[in-house]
């Protein structure tokens, strides 16, 4: 039974751009298009074109009018320990994929005796299918800034960085402008709001590297080095940016902070379910009628509700084949999993992960091996090259998939599989995938094989059909 | 190609002060690429000498990040998105249209230096797939015909 | 109490100190974990990168496998190092690696010590079951030393770390990413177009055959090579090297990271400059000049002829008509015998060696100030100094291994480096202050610094009061040298002088390191005295990581001085005019010792020119290229009635000889060298010399016998035993004691452990002596006719007159000819570009040489090396001498430069 799912707009200011098919209706909450056209003369609402825009409330005046920076005022009257306790009590967990308890992370850094500490916002959002952070950066830059200042105050950091991926050049401008506005009003800088707390934020632009979304690689990138992840331990809370204690939080995680401070941990726990409190912004894309971002309470709806209820169902009313529920580096779900509740625990029990909340939907016209090949083209290019399993593993997997799908393009032809052993390809893929999962140095190598291995589990028939065709051609 | 004016680097070096700190490397490289459109070898050599940072290190950092380029680029940079959402919505055919219209492959530049083509993954506008960006302009829900029309608009 | 951690590994309980990695903990109970990119042997030098993922182990409670080389142990941890799961993961990882690795082990140079081979053997993986694209880089054989085959590279990163963190050179780094990752120089140029200095450290740490020595190609498999330890024959660092030998030929040179003052590091000469030993031009038979041509003959004939001739000259003109040049390249035993031969057998004190040309000022100056003229501290201590003042020393090129210590002090321990040099040398990269003073103005510069120290009260009053004398006289002179005045003399801005003074005086301990730029002046002794003043003023002497540290040039110039191969000093620095000293040696040798001090090197040439000196016996020296004013030297050599030269090649000097004795190289005889930090170390006979060549000590003994004085020694250790009796500071040196590691003199008895730091409680002369020193300008200054200052020196790739390096194929290929360094400002005025041939002329001679435009010299100053006979800088230099030390002013003379129309 597909429920009618209510969006809960706490983090997102306006109803964000979901689908431009009916652009005039959905892109802004204000029904006054004329007003908007006056405000944004360059805005074109012709189908097929879209210009970046700021939400009217992205400016500091708009934000303050809606109660912005009141959480900061409240926090500056509290002790850092009290702030940390509030966040800990709320049981907010990181929204960037790793799902680490935010309050605990802040507490670890708070406890470090080192004077120099850093607070970093990870706005790299490289995971394919994820676009929620961009929306937050475009529409609520000040909320993120406020969340950072509160986090820095609680953990004892004096310098902050927002690391924005290079592809989000317009969002970078927005957040830089917002930082300037915040500084002018005294929310950033020395002695914020006449307290003894000083903090400032610098925006750092990425340079086109997915692996720099990994926390240690991100630090190296800010430090001006190659973005190679480091072994952990030591963890960022003891040795992070410039080898100093560092808090690194996702954009969405930070967007929750002002709300929790103002409304209290108990309010936060009234949303969602045990183990997954609060709301999550889901980015849904792929073969659905209404792709976009939706902010929803965790655990209160199923995958079916999300796909068929909110996102309007599959395009052309076709059949669902598979779903990547948490971004590209998660295990597939199939139509047998439509009843799964969308929260961290349920997805983990089903063998996959909520990840970044990026739901990519594939219908019956999509060839799963091709999608996996597409993903591995991506991983092969983005692998940092430091450890053997990932550097060579992604390359070999990519080659095998190419050999199966596009045999004419393979440089080293005739890889495996003749002499009747159609399973050779799959065995090789599984062996390499498992080795990568077990032995890789960082999360990229450890998670990249998930879509591959799950696709072999659920869709081996598609692979075998392709392999048979290849072998038929060879013999 | 016009003679490069390396005197612009002097202002850049004044803006970023330091000696031997690696954290300057990426912002300075970004600015050099902003000024010249790519990273000329002589500019990097000057940077290495000025900041006392080994040239092999600067080269190693610059070659790691896809954004940095060592070849001069065209006036208009076309970036076609091939993220997962765009991919299943036909990014390949969009890419092929651009390739065929301009006669260049990803990473390449037209002979008249009017266009350069790149493939990127995930511009964060997956709900308007397939998407491409030219300079700072977004174009979504593309079809091959729309692509051809859009390309004509750029000089 | 050190914190301990209890954990379980493969079912065994073990307790280890906290902070250990799993691999170290396993190793402590004898459990071996296969590893590849990290080698525990290099623990001290290179941190693990954890990138091969072969050393992964299972840790209970952790989802993935953990790299044991970097993961720290924790209490209650349960580790399984060899479960099925671990084995499978390792196999697949190894197969993935092998799928991109050339499988040519059968002809790979590294087979037998390849760490990938070892892991594949241990895990039982003969080949890869994965196929796919392999990298296909062209193998780079374009430089003479290192072959780079990056198809075999496993990207462990050890070479990058070694180049950056051991050598501080950063010639290579990782480039690109993913499968395309490649170790590369900037823009992937060949090594010779990067900052690479071919020290070979990267080759020594590479676990596979990606980096190999070109010179060893096809010359032997790893297991066929035998390793023998000896000391490098080039410079005063005295690095310990291993000769890898097969069939009496040296195949390659390596260095053990745990042995010697160099701890596994070498420079290009030590690592690759050994092929001169097997050069076909090696002297094989004695030669006698008959009718203007050299004819080979037997030893008997050559020795008899020489003995007869020397006896004849002695009878006709007296013993002082004969002079001998001993060799700073030969062993202590040989130098001892040589001066004994000259004094006891020939009957003259006319014995000297090339120390006269380099550190005679040091010997004279420090002997006056402290009582002992040697490096006061040790090389290893430099790393812990808080401030190092390097002056007159292009350390990176002249003493690369000592330079590594200075670089480590700066980079690892935050020491402050002050470089005082007229050229912008490589060490300036590490310096916080560069004082670029005009050549010859050193006394003014340092007096200026001391003026500031006194004015600001930064001197060490306690030390001055208790440990020194002569302070008041000295203070009066220094007070005249205001920084303003000094700026005018030296050209160094006032602020820099003040800053340098403050830094040196307040960072304790501070060490002074100096070399030829200080000593090779007509004011060389004064320069040294000034540095001694500076050290005493701030109490920076007599304790670790401080002191006055002259860097001796030759591998055994320190030893040659210790052994008394000097005209005015007997072995152990006893004065020749001291009657008791003469008596001591006369008693030991059974012959009277002449009382009159003899001639020094340059004086010998002057005397020969004048016809006063009739005969010379030159062992292992090449005055034609090494002495100043080479045109005069040539005339002097031509005028001699009899010249006998003993060397391994027919040097430029040997061309003028009447008799040539073929000697052997350092690898073909036993003996000892004393390096610049007074460490006496063993060299060994490892290969057989060519044909009839004999060790120098044997030749001297045979010649001596022919002259009627018996010198019978079974082997050099007997000679050292005799030295031990006569030279107190060598009293405790025996071959047994220095078998594994050298000993630093003073080492008076067999139980003494050697002396790293001199002048601890008191100076050798009692109290340190302050000397009031005034600035005196160099003898020949630029004028309208000769408007440039020529200063001379060395480069990394060649050694002194090139007898060895110019017979080394690779070194000649990399650096084939001399150049003159000209500042860009001057070049513009002269209309000269890099590569143009120019003529450099002085009042004494003229040289045609290639120009190199460089930022290194000051405007108005040009620089040349003395390594190349085709561009012999010493044709131009002046033989004006320091009045006390008699050292020539190599560092300053006046020249003019003209372009040469081709």
Q: How would you characterize the overall build of this protein?
A:
The complex is a heterotrimer of chains A (about 475), B (about 160) and C (about 900). In chain A, about 45% of the residues lie in helices and about 10% in strands. With about 475 residues, chain A is α/β, with parallel strands linked by helices. The longest helix of chain A has 26 residues. Chain A is globular. Chain B is α+β, with helices and mostly antiparallel strands and about 160 residues long. Chain B folds into two domains: about 60 residues, Orthogonal Bundle (Arc Repressor Mutant, subunit A); about 80 residues, 3-Layer(aba) Sandwich (Glutaredoxin). A four-stranded mixed sheet of chain B has the order 2-1-3-4, covered by helices on one side. The longest helix of chain B has 12 residues. By secondary structure, chain C is of the alpha/beta class. Chain C has five domains: about 100 residues, Ubiquitin-like (UB roll) (Roll); about 140 residues, Alpha-Beta Plaits (2-Layer Sandwich); about 240 residues, Rossmann fold (3-Layer(aba) Sandwich), CATH 3.40.50.740; about 190 residues, Dimethylsulfoxide Reductase, domain 2; about 110 residues, Beta Barrel (Barwin-like endoglucanases). Chain C is about 30% helix and about 20% strand. In chain C, the strands form ten sheets. Chain C has a seven-stranded mixed sheet with strand order 14-13-27-26-25-15-16, sandwiched between helices. Chain C has a six-stranded mixed β-barrel with strand order 32-36-33-35-34-37. In chain C, a hairpin with a 4-residue loop joins strand 28 and strand 29. Chains A and B meet through helix 9, strand 7 and helix 15 of A and helix 2, helix 4, helix 5 and strand 4 of B.
């Amino acid at each position: 039974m597909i429920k009618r799912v209510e969006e809960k707009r706490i983090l997102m200011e306006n109803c964000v751009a979901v689908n431009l098919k009916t652009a005039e209706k959905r892109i802004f909450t204000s029904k006054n298009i004329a007003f908007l056209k006056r405000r944004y003369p360059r805005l074109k609402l012709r189908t097929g074109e879209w210009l970046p825009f700021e939400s009217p409330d992205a400016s500091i005046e708009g934000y303050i009018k809606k109660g912005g920076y009141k959480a900061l005022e409240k926090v500056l009257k509290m002790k850092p320990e009290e702030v940390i306790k509030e966040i800990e009590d709320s049981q907010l967990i990181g929204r960037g994929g790793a799902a680490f308890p935010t309050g605990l992370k802040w507490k670890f850094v708070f406890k470090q005796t080192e004077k120099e500490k850093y607070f970093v916002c990870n706005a790299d959002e490289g995971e394919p299918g994820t676009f929620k952070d961009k929306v937050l950066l475009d529409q609520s830059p000040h909320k993120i800034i406020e969340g950072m200042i509160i986090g820095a105050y609680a953990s004892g950091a004096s310098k902050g960085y927002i690391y924005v991926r290079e592809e989000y050049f317009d969002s970078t401008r927005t957040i830089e402008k917002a930082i300037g506005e915040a500084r002018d009003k005294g929310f950033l800088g020395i002695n914020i709001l006449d307290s003894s707390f000083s903090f400032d934020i610098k925006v750092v632009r990425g340079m086109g590297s997915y692996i720099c979304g990994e926390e240690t690689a991100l630090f190296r990138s800010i430090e001006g080095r190659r973005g190679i992840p480091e072994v952990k331990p030591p963890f960022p809370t003891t040795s992070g940016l410039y080898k100093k204690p560092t808090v690194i939080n996702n954009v969405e995680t930070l967007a929750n902070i002002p709300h929790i401070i103002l409304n209290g941990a108990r309010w936060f726990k009234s949303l969602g379910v045990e183990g997954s409190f609060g709301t999550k912004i889901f980015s849904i894309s792929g073969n659905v009628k209404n792709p976009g971002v939706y902010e929803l309470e965790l655990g209160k709806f199923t995958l079916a509700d999300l796909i068929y209820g909110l996102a309007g169902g599959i395009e052309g009313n076709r059949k669902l084949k598979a779903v990547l529920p948490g971004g590209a580096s998660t295990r597939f779900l199939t139509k047998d999993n439509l009843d799964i509740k969308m929260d961290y625990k349920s997805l983990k029990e089903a063998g996959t992960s909520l990840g970044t909340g990026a739901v990519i939907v594939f219908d019956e016209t999509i060839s799963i091996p091709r999608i996996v090949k597409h993903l591995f083209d991506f991983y092969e290019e983005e692998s940092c090259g430091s450890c053997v399993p990932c550097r060579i593993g992604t390359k070999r997997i990519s080659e095998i998939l190419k050999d199966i799908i596009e045999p004419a393009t393979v440089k080293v032809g005739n890889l495996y599989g003749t002499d009747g052993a159609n399973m050779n390809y799959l065995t090789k893929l599984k062996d390499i995938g498992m080795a990568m999962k077990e032995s890789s140095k960082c999360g990229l190598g450890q998670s990249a094989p998930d879509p591959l291995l799950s696709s072999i589990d659920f869709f081996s028939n598609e692979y075998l059909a392709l392999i048979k065709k290849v072998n038929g051609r060879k013999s | 190609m016009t003679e490069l004016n390396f005197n612009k680097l002097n202002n850049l070096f004044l803006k970023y002060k330091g000696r031997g700190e690696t954290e300057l490397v990426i912002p300075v490289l970004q600015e050099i690429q902003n000024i010249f459109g790519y990273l000329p070898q002589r500019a990097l050599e000057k940077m290495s000498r000025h900041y006392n940072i080994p040239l092999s290190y600067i080269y190693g950092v610059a070659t790691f990040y896809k954004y940095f380029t060592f070849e001069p680029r065209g006036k208009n940079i076309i970036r076609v998105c091939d993220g997962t959402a765009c991919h299943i919505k036909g990014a390949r055919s969009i890419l092929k249209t651009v390739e065929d219209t301009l006669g260049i492959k990803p990473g390449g530049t037209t002979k008249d230096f009017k266009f350069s083509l790149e493939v990127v993954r995930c511009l964060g506008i997956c709900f308007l797939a397939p998407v491409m960006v030219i300079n700072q302009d977004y174009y979504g829900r593309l079809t091959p015909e729309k692509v051809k029309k859009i390309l004509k608009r750029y000089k | 109490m050190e914190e301990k951690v209890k954990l379980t590994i493969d079912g065994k309980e073990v307790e280890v100190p906290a902070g250990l990695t799993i691999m170290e903990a396993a190793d402590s109970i004898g459990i071996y974990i296969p590893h590849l990119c990290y080698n525990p042997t290099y623990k001290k030098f290179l941190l693990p990168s954890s990138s091969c993922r072969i050393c992964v182990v299972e840790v209970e409670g952790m989802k993935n496998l953990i790299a044991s080389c970097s993961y720290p142990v924790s209490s209650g941890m349960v580790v399984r190092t060899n479960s099925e799961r671990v084995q499978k993961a390792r196999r697949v990882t190894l197969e993935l690696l092998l799928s991109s690795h050339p499988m040519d082990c059968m002809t790979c140079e590294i087979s037998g010590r390849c760490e990938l081979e070892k892991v594949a053997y241990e895990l039982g993986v003969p080949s890869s079951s994965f196929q796919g694209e392999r990298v296909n880089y062209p193998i780079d054989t374009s430089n003479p030393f290192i072959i780079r085959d990056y198809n075999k590279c496993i990207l462990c990163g050890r070479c990058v770390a070694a180049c950056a963190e051991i050598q501080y050179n950063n010639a290579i780094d990782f480039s690109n990413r993913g499968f395309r990752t490649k170790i590369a120089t900037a823009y992937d140029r060949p090594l010779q177009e990067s900052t690479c200095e071919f020290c070979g450290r990267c080759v020594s740490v590479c676990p596979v055959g990606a980096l190999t020595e070109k010179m060893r190609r096809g010359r032997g498999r790893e297991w066929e090579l035998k390793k023998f330890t000896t000391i490098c024959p080039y410079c005063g660092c005295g690095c310990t090297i291993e000769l890898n030998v097969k069939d009496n030929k040296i195949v390659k040179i390596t260095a053990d990271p745990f042995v010697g003052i160099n701890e596994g590091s070498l420079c290009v000469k030590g690592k690759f400059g050994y092929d001169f030993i097997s050069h076909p031009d090696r002297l094989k038979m004695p030669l006698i000049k008959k009718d203007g041509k050299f004819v080979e003959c037997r030893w008997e004939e050559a020795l008899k002829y020489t003995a007869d001739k020397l006896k004849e000259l002695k009878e006709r003109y007296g013993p002082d008509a004969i002079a001998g040049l001993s060799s700073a390249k030969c062993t202590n035993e040989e130098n001892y015998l040589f001066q004994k031969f000259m004094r006891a057998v020939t009957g003259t004190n006319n014995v000297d060696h090339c120390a006269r040309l380099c550190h005679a000022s040091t010997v004279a100056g420090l002997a006056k100030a402290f009582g002992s003229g040697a490096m006061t501290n040790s090389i290893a201590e430099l790393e812990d100094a808080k401030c190092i003042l390097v002056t007159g020393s292009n350390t990176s090129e002249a003493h690369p291994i000592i330079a590594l210590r200075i670089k480590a002090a700066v980079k690892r321990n935050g020491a402050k480096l002050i470089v005082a040099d007229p050229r912008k040398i490589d060490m300036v990269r590490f310096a916080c202050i560069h004082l670029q003073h005009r050549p010859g103005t050193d006394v003014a510069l340092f007096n200026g610094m001391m003026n500031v120290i006194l004015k600001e009260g930064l001197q060490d009053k306690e030390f001055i009061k208790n440990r020194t004398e002569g302070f008041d006289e000295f203070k009066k002179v220094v007070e005249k040298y205001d920084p303003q005045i000094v700026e005018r003399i030296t050209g160094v801005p006032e602020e820099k002088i003040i800053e340098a003074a403050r830094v040196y005086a307040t960072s304790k301990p501070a060490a002074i390191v100096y070399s030829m730029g200080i000593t090779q002046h007509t004011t060389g002794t004064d320069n040294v005295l000034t540095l001694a003043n500076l050290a005493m003023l701030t109490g920076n002497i007599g304790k670790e990581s401080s002191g006055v540290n002259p860097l001796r040039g030759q591998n055994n110039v320190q030893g040659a001085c210790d052994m008394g191969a000097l005209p005015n000093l007997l072995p152990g620095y006893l004065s020749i005019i001291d009657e008791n000293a003469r008596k001591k040696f006369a008693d030991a040798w059974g012959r009277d010792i002449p009382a009159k001090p003899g001639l020094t090197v340059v004086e010998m040439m002057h005397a020969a020119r004048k016809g006063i000196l009739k005969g010379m016996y030159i062992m292992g020296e090449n005055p034609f290229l090494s002495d100043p004013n080479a045109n005069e030297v040539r005339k002097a050599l031509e005028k001699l009635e009899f010249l006998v030269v003993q060397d391994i090649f027919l040097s430029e000097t040997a061309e003028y000889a009447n008799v040539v004795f073929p000697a052997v190289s350092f690898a073909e005889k036993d003996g000892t060298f004393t390096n610049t930090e007074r460490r006496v170390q063993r060299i060994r006979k490892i290969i057989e010399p060519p044909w009839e060549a004999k060790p120098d000590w044997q030749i001297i003994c045979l010649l001596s016998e022919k002259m009627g004085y018996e010198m019978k020694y079974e082997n050099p250790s007997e000679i050292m035993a005799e030295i031990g009796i006569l030279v107190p500071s060598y009293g405790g040196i025996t071959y047994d004691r220095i078998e594994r590691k050298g000993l630093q003199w003073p080492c008076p008895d067999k139980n003494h452990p050697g002396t790293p730091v001199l002048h601890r409680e008191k100076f050798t002369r009692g109290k340190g002596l302050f000397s009031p020193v005034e600035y005196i300008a160099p003898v020949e200054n630029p004028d309208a006719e000769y408007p440039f200052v020529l200063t001379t020196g060395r480069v990394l790739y060649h050694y002194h007159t090139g007898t060895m390096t110019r017979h080394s194929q690779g070194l000649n290929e990399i650096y084939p000819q001399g150049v003159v360094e000209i500042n860009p400002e001057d070049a513009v005025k002269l209309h000269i570009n890099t590569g143009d041939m120019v003529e450099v002329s002085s009042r004494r001679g003229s040289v045609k040489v290639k120009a190199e435009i460089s930022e290194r010299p000051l405007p108005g100053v040009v620089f040349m090396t003395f390594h190349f006979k085709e561009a012999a800088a010493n044709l131009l230099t002046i033989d004006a001498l320091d009045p006390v030390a008699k050292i020539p002013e190599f560092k300053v003379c006046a020249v003019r430069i003209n372009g040469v129309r081709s």
